[in-house]
Design goal:
The chain is an alpha/beta fold. The chain is built from 23 helices and 17 strands. It has a 7-stranded parallel beta sheet with strand order 11-12-13-14-15-16-17. A 5-stranded mixed beta sheet has the order 2-4-7-6-5, sandwiched between helices. Helix 1 runs antiparallel to helix 2, helix 7 (116-124) packs across helix 8 (136-151) and helix 19 (452-464) runs parallel beside helix 20. The mean pLDDT is 94. The structure holds zinc ion (ZN) (2 copies).
Length: 580
């Protein structure tokens, strides 16, 4: 928790400094510090206690002093001073896509806009378009962004929700009275955003101990209910953005645990379909169990397996419970054999200091090896992105990777590139150098506002070059922050099939792109998928699970995913794909 809090403090510091028009180098130092602490593999408080803060890259005496001050007092005086200069709601504007600190400062100075509501009002009144560096289009984008924010209001991103749920479970599980404890709800189905968090538990004897501990957990800012069978609290976390979420803890009798888990996992529509099926069999199903309608006798309830079995069904994995045909498939023995994390043999999308990553090739490779992978593809950005490589740099990188590979056994760094797809569908790197690579990823990072036809043609052209193995984050959306660019996904899927190109499920929780529905359509069309983290630091490799569970929501099996293949299979696929 400390690392998250400290990095959020530095992020906020940087935001205010930038709004305050501070020296860009100072702003960058604070952003860098936030990143360093966020990616730190150990507890920052421990590092501070041992006087090792200044050994961290980019942390000098001044920043180390701020960390110590924050850890000791929960505040930093210099930050408090900055905060006091502006209305506290001013920083909320940064949540709007296309609105950076410079724009916030401008809005505040010129229009006296200091909250989201005021920004919306000003945009609707057409006042933004008149500001320097703005214009009608930016104004429209800002309005759309505010709309998107409102839609996602009250929902927290999947990663944040898991972080909260897992830390609560870790606190409560060791209690002597706790027998079973597990998060249910949409979190257990791995939906991309989460409303409330539901946690279920069984106890030996009274529930007082676990309920008491629950309402006093760190991070709890409000207790809505404190009962014997149910308690509800509000938890606040600050992870780059501030989120508050309601968490319900229910303690249920062991004989009903499976039924309660099934009921509170949902989805609502899945449960309605199950209930209808039960009724046809003379049964009723609710959060307490499965019962014979006539006699009221309980026939199941302790485990989920027995609840589904009572309805003549195998256990349906939570990710499938969206009423998208899973009950019929289960009844007919057609449930997919879903992919899992253990099936993943490597990651095919990672960045290093050669572009915008934070670590060296060797550091990223070591992190991949530590996770038991057989391979890691290094896919740094290409020109024309300002932080992208040119051909010469890529050749240098290929050489470095070949040298590094000499010392590994049972592991290989794959040479690669995330080559930019230019506006007209050409690639940002010469064919000659791309042909030397093990893996070529292509993706769109600019000119998002093209028409649907232009964007679709642009990406299909990139596939038709024959040089591209994977299209990364195919729709460009950012969960809760930015809709994707306008693109004809079925046409992309058709082209991927025709060109033998794999489509990515980008596992970063901000992206999850392709999403579950698009990934399922791709799978059904016979397109190969790949699940990658797009890691910019070693710790990012752990985000893979978000992609794997999104794939499970898409009914994806091991055989549908490129990077479940062993290294030789992967290289053979690539050779066949390229007609070599
Ligand atoms: Zn990218
Ligand atoms: Zn990338």
């Amino acid at each position: 928790m400390d690392n998250t809090a400290v990095s959020a403090m530095f992020d906020e510091f940087a935001d205010w400094l930038e709004i305050d028009d501070e020296n860009p180098f100072r702003v960058r130092a604070y952003r860098r510090a936030a990143q360093v602490v966020r990616d730190l593999p150990e507890d920052v408080a421990q590092v501070a206690a041992e006087g090792r803060l200044t050994h961290l890259e980019g942390i000098g005496k001044d920043l180390a002093g701020k960390i110590v001050e924050f850890l000791q007092t929960g505040k930093v005086a210099a930050l408090e001073e900055l905060r006091s200069k502006y209305p506290p709601t001013l920083r909320d504007l940064l949540q709007v896509p296309d609105v950076g600190p410079k724009t916030v400062a401008l809005l505040y100075k010129r229009l006296n806009v200091s909250s989201l509501d005021e920004l919306e009002e000003a945009a609707q009144a057409g006042k933004l378009a008149a500001l320097p560096r703005m214009g009608k289009k930016t104004q429209e984008n800002i309005l759309r962004g505010i709309q998107l924010l409102k839609q996602s209001a009250g929902r927290v991103p999947l990663e944040v929700a898991w972080h909260i749920a897992e830390s609560i479970v870790a606190e409560l599980k060791p209690l002597p009275s706790v027998e079973q404890i597990i998060p249910a709800g949409s979190l257990r189905r791995w939906r991309e955003t989460i409303g409330d968090i539901d946690i279920l538990a069984t106890t030996t004897g009274a529930s007082a101990e676990v309920m008491d501990r629950f309402v006093h957990l760190p991070g709890v800012t409000e207790v809505l209910a404190h009962g014997e069978t149910k308690s509800s609290v509000i938890v606040v976390v600050d992870a780059r953005r501030k989120y508050s979420v309601q968490v319900d803890l229910r303690v249920v009798p062991p004989g009903s645990f499976g039924a309660a888990l099934q009921y509170f996992t949902g989805s609502k529509d899945h449960n309605i379909t199950l209930r209808a099926r039960a009724l046809k069999q003379g049964l009723t199903i609710n959060e307490y169990g499965v019962f014979e309608e006539k006699t009221g006798k309980q026939v199941a309830g302790a485990t989920e397996e027995e609840v589904y079995a009572a309805l003549g069904l195998p256990l349906i994995p939570p990710e499938l419970r969206e009423n998208r045909g899973e009950v019929e498939a289960a009844a007919e023995g057609r449930l997919p054999d879903l992919i899992d994390l253990a099936a993943m043999r490597g990651d095919l999308h990672a960045h290093t200091t050669y572009s915008d990553g934070h670590n060296t090739i060797a550091e990223m490779a070591d992190a991949a090896r530590a996770r038991g992978y057989e391979y890691l593809a290094i896919t740094d950005h290409s020109k024309p992105l300002a932080w992208g490589m040119d051909e010469k740099t890529l050749r240098k990188q290929i050489k470095e990777i070949r040298q590094l590979n000499e010392k590994y056994h049972g592991f290989r760094i794959l040479t690669g590139c995330e080559v930019d797809i230019l506006s007209d569908g050409r690639l940002g790197m010469d064919a000659a150098v791309l042909q030397q690579l093990d893996i070529v990823i292509a993706s769109v990072h600019s000119n998002f506002k093209q028409s649907r036809e232009e964007m679709t043609r642009r990406i299909i052209r990139a596939m038709e070059t024959g040089l591209v193995d994977i299209i990364a984050h195919p729709t460009g959306r950012l969960v809760g922050q930015r809709e994707g660019y306008d693109v004809d996904v079925p046409a992309l899927i058709e082209a991927a099939k025709r060109c033998g190109v794999a489509l990515e499920i980008n596992a970063h929780p901000d992206r999850l792109d392709l999403n579950d529905l698009n990934a399922r359509a791709a799978k059904n069309a016979g397109v190969l998928l790949t699940i990658n983290t797009d890691a910019h630091a070693p710790s990012n490799l752990d985000l893979l699970r978000f992609g794997v569970h999104t794939a499970r929501r898409a009914w994806v099996e091991k055989k549908d995913v490129l990077n479940t293949m062993p290294l030789d299979g992967l290289l053979k696929w690539r050779q066949q794909r390229r007609g070599l």
